[in-house]
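Posting for a labmate who doesn't have an account.
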Amino acid sequence: MKTFNNTCAQGDVFFIRRDVLPLGLIEQAPHNDRAVITHSETGHDHVMVLDRRNDTPNVQLFAGDDPLTAWIKVNRPTALNHLRAHDTHESIMFDPGVYEIRRQQEYDPYAELARRVAD
């Protein structure tokens, strides 16, 4: 399992450790006891399994106005997993803290615009 200090990526998802959550974010509800960090267009989501010991979840997911950016608050060490049986990305262990989540983008010269990277 991978670990990191300040930044990491799993497929098309990029993480940056931050000091605090920005104001105005809305906490997102979990799906089947999982925090779905990003949905994959092929159904192979990037997720963190929820553990609600002591009434405090190990991870909380937040969203704001930008659809390409989200935030997580990790309260206890938690692994990010890629739900795919083959050609999967290695799991990444997150230490407690606040992390900005960015969907990576690429430039399409034919359409002359930036688009979300497809994983």
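Reply:
Got it, the structure tokens are right above this. DSSP finds no helices and twelve strands in the chain.
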